[in-house]
Amino acid sequence: MSVSDSSEEEDLSRFKEVxxxxxxxxxxxxxxxxxxxxxxxxxxxxxxxxxxxxKVPKELQIQIGKKIxxxxxxxxxxxxxxPKKIKRKIKGGxxxxxxxxxxxSCHEAEDKFTxxxxxxxxxxxxxxxxxxxxxxxxxSVAVSGEYVLSKEEIKCWKSRRKEKVFKYKSNGKGAxxxxx
Length: 180
Fold this sequence. Notes:
Elements (H helix, E strand, L loop, with lengths): L2 H16 L3 H11 L14 H4 L7 H18 L36 H20 L3 H7 L3 H5 L18 E3 L5 E3 L2
Antiparallel strand pairs: 1-2
């Protein structure tokens, strides 16, 4: 043997000592084994096997089903429930001041104070106007009974014409007929 062969053999022997062959041992059994066949779940049974104990004709099953559904519809009240709208809490935003509790919003705030104030002010003005009427003003407008009986206001009125007054009667169809 030559010197180079012996050095190669030494290198090979050192390499074999260093190399871990345990991973190849782990891989071989995984490839060689056959997969286990799992049994079928008996959770869902076929209809024929499930109802074998009781033999009831199809017509009787339908009749009993109708009676049960009518009893359920009479006793149970079905109510449509709308899901509640969840008001989401704002997690972050811009605060006007560093110690502010609430965040600024892009929505314009409604001015409820001015609306309420205007309504209250109108009511107060109406009440004041009602109270401010003086007795003198009332007396200046009032007319005594003697003045009315004197007929001074109607002296200048013209008297009624002495012409004949025509009377008409409706015939029920929208036309007028004179009654002379």
